[in-house]
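Closing statement on the pyridoxal-5'-phosphate sub-project.
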Amino acid sequence: MAVGKVRPAVQALTGYRPGKAASQAEVEHGITDAIKLASNENPYSPDSDVAAAITDAIAGLNRYGDHRATAMRSTIAQWLALPAEMIAVGCGSSGLLQQLVLTYVDPGDEVVFPWPSFEIYPVFCATFAARDVRVDLVDLEFDLAAVAAAVTERTKLVFLATPNNPTGTAVSTGDIGQLLDSISDEVIVVIDEAYREFNDPAFGDPVTDLLPSHRNVVVTRTFSKAYGLAGLRSGYAIADPEVVTELDKVLLAFSVNNLAQAGAIAAIEHRENAQERVAELVSERNRVTEALRSAGWNFPDSHANFIFVPTGERTDDIYLRMEKAGVVTRPFTGFGVRITISTREENDRWLDALGAP
Ligand SMILES: *Cc1c(COP(=O)(O)O)cnc(C)c1O
């Protein structure tokens, strides 16, 4: 007998599918020394300055932190030369994506996004009984004209991840500007920049290029990927102050915890360390791209910290073969495998495990 009356929207849900842990693959295949390249994590631990700031904050853990994360917001605002009223914080940028759905979406409303994209979008839509309207990629790229055409009077949100997860492809602020001009400004357009730091600056900055002329734009960013703080859960959004006020109302109390605030502030203060590692990862991405192409693989340029290999129908076989060799990747059945760029040594290992097409 069922316990309680579960909401049908939740009962039908499978939940978010996290990347498989290396330890789990080791148990499943009876191997040792597996590596996890399934969640686009930074291979480097936080640097000592950031670690020290987090350690210092431990002494205050008997107290609730600052729910509004005032110091974190003002540090971000100063860094970006924006008013603090334009900064929202969340429990990772996923927390902010959930706050956006909570703030704007009623059951039956529509949320439009290109697909495949970040797998958490449909989960949040389903939780709130929203209709997710998925717009197929064309040659692994966004079709922004089709996104615009999919927007109706019921559309409350559009999610655009650029660079996109899992394809690594990106769109320019010029192209997003055209989309914005062709849809109602009552639709909130979320530009999910989880991988911004790995992107080519030529694609533009939505905060300076779009936000001043489009108050319906919300840009989400995170300390999880480039700053190597995925386990800390610290994200932020840049938006019109009115939007920030609404998002703040649904911020789960203290979910950007004391340590997450201390870590985020230190990460900004010592950002040159992260920038060096990002440069290393980008140069590894370029090296791996060349190696894969000379081996005969065909795939789009990645602008993030992972590479998407379109393995089509062979995806599950290739994924399993790599995992048995101790390399855990993220499979998208029938579509391709997404593999995180890591240290040179780990990249050589996955190149080896993938082999030739
Ligand atoms: C990893 C990722 C995020 C962010 O994750 P948080 O850890 O919650 O900040 C957001 N969007 C996309 C597209 C991602 O791949």
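Residues 40, 92-94, 118, 161, 165, 192, 194, 222, 224-225, 230, 235 surround pyridoxal-5'-phosphate (CB under 6 Å). With this model delivered, the sub-project is considered complete and its resources will be redirected to Aim 3.
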